[in-house]
Every structure is written in structure tokens, then in C-alpha cells.
Amino acid sequence: MTTDRTPEYLMSLLQELCKLPSETEWLEFKHNYADPQEIGEYLSALSNSAALCGKAHAYLVWGIDDKTHDIVGTDFSPFKVKIGNEELENWLLRLLSPKIHFRFYPFEMVGLQVILLEIGRAFRHPVQFQNQEFIRVGSYKKKLKDFPEKERDLWRIFDQTPFESLIAAENVTSDEVLKLLDYPAYFELLGRPLPDNKTGILSALVNDDLLRKTDAGKWNITNLGAILLAKKLEDFKSLKSKAVRVISYKGNSRIETIREQQGTKGYANGFEGLIGFINGLLPSNEIIKQALRKTVPMYPDLAIRELVANALLHQNFFISGTGPMVEIFDDRLEIRNPGVPLVETERFLDSPPRSRNEALASFMRRIGVCEERGSGVDKVVFQTEFFQLPAPAFEVSGDNTIAVLFAHRPLTKMDKADRVRACYLHACLRYVNRDFMTNTTLRERFGIDPSNKSMASRYIREAIDAYTIKLYDEDSAMKLRKYVPFWA
């Protein structure tokens, strides 16, 4: 979401810019000089410098004296300039790589014409003009290749600037902030009292980097603020596709859809509602225990929570046009998120957590959605073992990571791949708890009768042959043997 640049906003912004003691690396003042080649080079230099300086935008302004910052007016009219038969704006955009946001704004100030060129900051790659990268050094425009230390700093910023720090809505008023963000949920989720004034509310959001003050005295809502607390994600154009889709199918295929719904709220204020909606669509099991028939959920609630939270936290937000998805079938639940995982799927259970979106993960930890330690996969595996469900599966498909929970199946209906996966994850779970898998623990995991040790031995041999587990103590007697994951 981007608010319109009203004359009032532009005048307020210009006043703030003119108050600066001197030109900065993200600001250039001009009178009338407007060579198209120079403008293109300034687009590259100012965009890259805005990234270096942590600014959402850079500015090139005509009609201002660069020494006194007095408003002197300009004769420059960008919409009348043509290069050949091509309009200036189109010509500049064509020669920029990657394409960045920029726009010319003409307006009057104290009766004089001013042109303000607003330039979006570079992200992920330095901005080039005609295949050349530029940067500002003080108030001078230079070639980036001549300043390797600045180039290193710029790439370091690209590597370190997460999606959460970019801007979802810019130049909004304080009242608009309170309309767009579910600020009461913010204080409720953190167990903090709601401030009794607007200043206190905005200050708290700023302290958590959900909101930033602009040069014009308004507010920028960060991606972090919007993705966590949006009342409606569709209000933020760049985040609309990141809402969670939940689809329920008839049977075990995607041929017939029973229900499909896309979430509307942010991840923090909408998490409990999302989990409740998913659970409401899940089939249930009937079990008979001590002659009593009892209906139980198909999947453990804790396992669903952990896997949905992981999908939200570990997604690659830079993959555009797609977001997390939950698909419900009769025999399984698939939870998908865009992005290839940062660790191998075989090591999900034991690897320390690595998140692309640490600020998002940190806030969700603070409100109890996930924990500081681990990825939660150990909890998922424990829950599936406790309820004697087939072992979960973790897969990579193209640019997506998929976690699968399977509905209950008796051991006799599990195939070899199911048994090997269950054996491997059981060994992993035991190992991270500083213990070992044995014939006895595997029988308990599968619900095999204690007298049927040979069946458990056969399943252990299948996993060893598949190179997912290995014998820990080769010299021990058969009945005392212990097993560990292949990587231990």
C-alpha cells in the first residue's frame, strides 16, 4: 500500500529535506540542470546510497539552491523531455537494472515550481544504469567499482537486510496506522496494558520495528509490522499473496475441492483463528477404549501448530506471488511454504534453528507461538509416535518445502518407505534426547507385541539397508544392540 503524494505531503517532505544542514548521500538538490544521462546515473547512485544509509527512499529535487537550500524554482519539466521518440521516464526505466520504483512529482512551493524525484532504495542487488553501478561519496556521484569498500558494505547490507525491514506501507498518518494494524492485539499478545494515548501506542510499535517515522513526519509500516498485525493483509499490496490458504479436498487427490479460504489477518493476531479453522475442517477418528466409543482429532493439535508456525516463519518472502498453504485430504495433511529449507530435510529434527526471518520468529516466540530452542519438529515426531501415527514426511518440491502428517494406518497397511522413515525419525528423537533406539523402543513405537521381536528386527534391518540408521555398538549381543541415525 502506498498513499498518494498529495501536495500537502510533498510540501511537508520538502520542508524536512531543506532543513538538513547539507546534501546527504541520499539527497541531491538541483536548480535547472537536467541531462537525461545524469539523471539515470543519479537514480543508480542515490538508490544504492539509500540502501547504505538505511533509508526507504532517496530524493533528487529541482528548484532548490544546493548551498542555501532556498527554494528558487525550476524550468525543468520531466514530462516534456524525450530521448528520440521515447519519454524520459520510460527511457530511464528501460536502462535501469534491476527495475526500481521512481517517480517525478511536480508541485508548487511559495509560488515556485519544484520537481521532486522519489527513488526507491536498492535491495538484493546494486542498481545499475546502462550496466554501470554508481554510488554517492559525500555529495559527489562516483562509480561504485572505484570504491570497493562501499561495494562490500552494500553487499553486506543486502545480505543482512531481511524482508521484515522493508516497507509495506509508506507515508501514512498516525490515524491510518491505527486503522491498518491490530494494535490492541499487539498489547494483548504481549500481556502488556494498552496505553491510554496514541503517542504511547505508536512509540511501542516503533520500539519493536513495526513502525518508523518518515522524513516528512508521517509513518512507514514495516513488512514486519504488517505481516504480524495487519487487520487485512490485502491492504498491503506486497503482502497480499502471503496470506495463508487453506484448502479441503474430497478423497485423497486434488480433483474435487470441498472448501477453500484465504486468511485475512496478520500472522500474530490471526494465528489462533487459523489453527481453529484448520481443526474445524479436519476429519476425526473414532476409537473404542474400555468398551466406550470416543471421537478424537485425526492429528495432534500440537503437531499442527508447530508445522503451521514453521511454514510461516521459514518461508522465503522474496518468492513473489505465493504464500503458505495448508491442504487437507482424507488420508493426510500437507503444509507447504515457499522457499527451499536452509538445512537438509533429513536433519530437521536435530539441527539448530536457522530462520530467514529472525525478527518475525523472535516476535512469535515472545507471544508463545514457537519456542527459542529447536524447530519444533522433535515435538511433531513425539506426538505422532505417542498417538502411533505414521511418521511425518518432510520434502522439497521445486521452490517449496512441504511437511506431511498422515492419518492413522495400522502397521500392516504401512509400506516399506513408511517403516524406514518412522524408524529413522525414532532413532533421531531418541538420539537428541541422549538415548538410543533399540528393538524394545521400536516395538513400543509401532505397538508391536513384546513377543514379536523378529518383526522389529526386520524393520531395523530395512532402515540399515536404506542407510538411514546404523549400529552404535557392533560388539554387543544381539538383544543389547543400540542404533543411532546415520549422521551420528
Could you walk me through the main structural features you see in this protein, from its secondary elements to its overall organization?
The protein folds into 4 domains: 7-161, Methyltransferase, Cobalt-precorrin-4 Transmethylase, Domain 2 (2-Layer Sandwich); 167-238, Arc Repressor Mutant, subunit A, CATH 1.10.10; 243-347 and 356-408, Heat Shock Protein 90, CATH 3.30.565.60; 410-488, Orthogonal Bundle (Arc Repressor Mutant, subunit A), CATH 1.10.10. 34% of the residues lie in helices and 23% in strands. The chain contains 15 helices and 23 strands. The chain has helices at residues 7-19, 36-53, 88-95, 148-160, 174-180, 183-189, 198-207, 223-229, 267-281, 301-313, 358-366, 377-386, 416-432, 439-446, 453-465, and strands at residues 27-30, 57-62, 82-83, 86-87, 96-97, 102-109, 112-120, 128-129, 132-137, 140-143, 167-172, 211-213, 219-222, 245-249, 257-262, 284-289, 292-297, 325-328, 332-338, 393-397, 400-406, 469-471, 483-485. The strands form 7 sheets. Strands 15-14-18-19-21-20 form a 6-stranded mixed beta sheet, with helices on one face. Strand 1 (27-30), helix 2 (36-53) and strand 2 (57-62) form a beta-alpha-beta unit. The longest helix has 18 residues, at 36-53. The chain is elongated and about 95 Å long.
